[in-house]
Design brief:
The chain is mainly α and 208 residues long. It contains nine helices and no strands. It is elongated, with a radius of gyration of 19 Å.
């Protein structure tokens, strides 16, 4: 779930704190690597070398490549929520919040937050036909994001801000445009954000 308010656990033991900080550093670097090379490009040895750590130390923290992949997904989700979801929590539900979400998503992909752009777009195609925990984690995040878009469309329709529409289908279409825009931005299309805005505004037209 893409929650904007999930509290972080408090760690007071200094040894555990250092371990948690090192684990976070490794996971964050794993996100950057996976956004460019995919989650299959991750390895315990690769990240140990990149960060100047011992492979045995990284293995102690994560155990397996799959655990490392899952930690990267968790970290990418937290970063996405912080960049896109949390900043709009004070914006009224409906059209205004959907526009705010889209603007923050554009900044997230255009900046980009990760070297390869949108983390899910970079990875979900590699796992969509490969059952297992990694696929399940990616699907949960993807579903939560599309559900969030649908919820704001539903709020806008219920408030009479926009015409009645199939919110699930509209959210699917908006997400598809965002994925296309992520690719376009990576290829140097500077007009991609305006194309996204134009598509979204088509769904937010006031009722006639």
């Amino acid at each position: 779930m893409l929650s904007a308010d999930r509290p972080e656990p408090v760690i007071t033991d200094q040894r555990l704190l250092r371990g948690a900080q090192t684990r976070r550093t490794i996971a964050r670097h794993a996100v950057d690597v996976a956004s460019v090379e995919g989650l299959n490009g991750l390895s315990l040895g690769r990240l140990a070398t990149d960060l100047g750590l011992s492979k045995s130390g990284v293995q102690t923290l994560f155990g397996t490549k799959e655990n490392l992949q899952l930690a990267a997904i968790d970290c990418a989700r937290e970063e996405f929520v912080a960049a896109v979801v949390r900043p709009v929590r004070s914006t009224p539900h409906g059209a205004a919040r959907l526009r705010a979400l889209i603007e923050h998503w554009i900044a997230y992909a255009e900046r980009p937050l990760f070297p390869g752009g949108c983390f899910r777009a970079a990875n979900i195609a590699d796992f969509d036909s490969r059952p297992g925990p990694v696929r399940d984690a990616l699907v949960r995040d993807q579903t939560a994001w599309v559900d969030l878009l649908a919820a704001e469309l539903r709020a806008a329709a219920d408030a009479g801000e926009i015409a009645e529409l199939d919110v699930d289908f509209a959210a699917f279409q908006i997400d598809a445009v965002l994925c296309a825009a992520n690719t376009a931005l990576r290829l140097g299309d500077e007009d991609a954000p305006d194309k996204v805005r134009k598509v979204v505004e088509g769904f937010l037209a006031p009722p006639r």
